[in-house]
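Q: Here's a chain of 322 amino acids. Please give me its 3D structure as tokens.
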Amino acid sequence: MQQQQVSTLLPGSSFDGFLLVRSSELRSDSKGKTYLDMNLADCSGEINCKRWDEKVTAPPQGSIVWVSGQVQEFKGRIQLKIERMHLRTEIETVDLSLLIPCAPEKPEAMIQEIEQTIASFQSEDLRKLVGRMIAMTREKLLYYPAAMRMHHAEKSGLLHHTTDMLHTAKQILTCYPFLNADILLAGVIVHDLAKTVEMQSDEYGNVSDYTKDGLLVGHLVRGVSLLDEAAREENVSGECVQLLEHMMISHHGIPEYGSPRYPMFLEAEALHWIDLLDARMNEMKTVEDRTPPGAFSEKIMSLDGRRMYHPLYEEITQSKKQ
């Protein structure tokens, strides 16, 4: 299967090929005309698509569709106007590895990095506690994304988010040596593990919805109960358990973002900012990738409604060579 990658599409070009349905919804314009609004993806990125057809039906999330249409720019965002489309049939062969957005590293390698970090802990209690939590979620960790639509929404995205945070945390520890390395790194590893029960994901990292537990409880609170279960199984109690519990419920920083407590000690505060930094960098890079150089993106609601600018990096590089 050879086709142009989504990330390379430019206004004025055409596209024919198979794409993965990340979301699809029937909508109506101001005149009441029905149209299909979809986000379709391949392994290189995602593109918003419109299909103007009164008889069209929304394909299921996670399905594969063949589409043909014209690439255009709308409010600084690349968009595909679909002229023809159909669901993949049984006789059509598609290389799924070319369609599924995946973390840049293999999940097995990322798991190994996490386990090596755990093995480096000076605290035996933290080694047992965090190791148990990884064992409890390991199977899902191999493919789970970190979010439904925002940052690291890709196969193995949760591992990608966690390992990138570990890299940042280890650098921060060189700047602030008074931080307790075991506590900070343990907090990084466990802070989002309960997302594996908060969301419903298939093996390709496509999230269809939040679970009942995710909607009623959420991963911050559920993470504490998973931690307490691990502590009972490993017969661990005391300060380290309570500190990790606090880091779990406070890592979103403020009540408006779901945290029932503000971070109340150094490592909890550091975890909050490392988490926010990694999520923002990943999300902004995703927006930049779909925005033409020299243009502004649409308003990004998850970034407080701001529009992102894609700098002309090549122009800057060329000026350095002169």
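Q: Can you summarize the key feature?
A: DSSP finds ten helices and nine strands in the chain.
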